[in-house]
Task: structure prediction
Amino acid sequence: MRLFLLFFIVVTVFAFESMVQEKVVTLEAKLFPKIVKIDLNYKKKLIDGKILMALVYDTKKNEKLAEIFKKAIENSNDSEIEIVLLPLDKISKNFTAYVLFLNPYNVKHFLKKEQNDKLVFAYDSFLLSKGAMISLDIGEKVKPIINIHALKRSGIKINPLFVKLSKVYSDEY
Result:
């Protein structure tokens, strides 16, 4: 009986975690493409007139989260956004922005290959400590979190009003 109860609790916790991750990714899919426009030079970074976002992943679990993000964008019928799923080992530079679905130890590997003047979003706000630029703080209210140091290093100039509306990630990494 105890074993059954333990099994039931474990299954319930994993199911709840999966549901929460899905909701977070769906919310990010609604907001990240809009946040791209805070880059004062984003129009110069459009590819064929579209925001081309690469969803970079490193594991099967993270690939599934990236697929949920992609489906949420496709369901929004926003014709100005195009999404590409991209394994970490296939990084290229022809994107307007990146969304990282990576384990923390792979973020530095990504940043060595690509960053330049492109916005780098993180599904998990912990990745800001590894060099990602923007994530979301989801609590009672949803607020963007920005890594000012990463933005400065990349040379991206963003709308000052966005900085005032956001939480600023301050720890150096």
Summary: Residues 2-169 form a domain with the Rossmann fold fold (CATH 3.40.50). The longest helix spans residues 2-35. Strands lie at 51-57, 81-87, 97-101, 119-122, 134-138, 142-147, 167-169.
